[in-house]
Design brief:
Length: 289
Amino acid sequence: MSPFELAEPTSIKEALGLLDGDDPTVRPISGGTALMLMMKAGVFRPTRLVSLRKVGDRFSGIRVRNGGLAIGAMTPLSTIEHSAEIARAAPVIPRIMTRLSNVRVRNVATVGGALAHGDPHMDLPPVLIALGASVAVLGPKSERTLKVEDLLTGYYETALDKNELIAEVNVPAQGKRNAAYIKFTAGSYDDWPAVGLAVSLEAERDTIKNVTVVVSAATAKAVRLRSAEAALAGARIDDAVLARAGDAGAQEAEVISDVRGSAAYKRELIRVLIGRAVREAAAAKGATH
């Protein structure tokens, strides 16, 4: 591992001042679980890491806001896993945590880092997109808000400038919407998924009023499957409707092959999992496999 400077600012203003929008070797670091692996492998050689551990309360903790949630970007995943506030407002989030890597990683990794890294295999981004979540982004001169679906732009790519930081994740009140997430792994229980499929919907009896369908891991980024949403909107939940939605979503998804499966294999998983996730979301609030 190459030598580098470790800066530990005590304010967000100082942290932003230490970043360099023109130098890709200067990076912020929160939990560092992914960044350290990249450094050990020689994939990334920083000249400076800007630690965010001491920048203030806004970057950590969970607050209820207008029935929704405001989650500080430096909040560890294990805190989210055990949060009573999150369990009440968006129960699908803590339910997915036991299969998100292992407890050692969850104790260190942060929600902001998980999003800023842009890894398409992460379990949180598709769920947050399905829930309509957004992020507050701070830069040296301004603050802006981005939907999570707009934050992720490609394979390990985000819309963040190199001198911007995620300050907070905001999840709106879910009202009558229920959500589910199905993670299919080709390896161990907590391995990276071959496919992640998140669904959030509002249903009246067995008729879907509105729905969001998001796929991840099989694609270069977590992305909504709008053709599947169109096939489901206003329809009664039955085998024929779910089959049409599965076919539409599998055809729309721009699937990539990797060590976890071929594109054809993953496309078939998407076809099947859309129906399963819709049924699960309709049946039980926040349930997940």
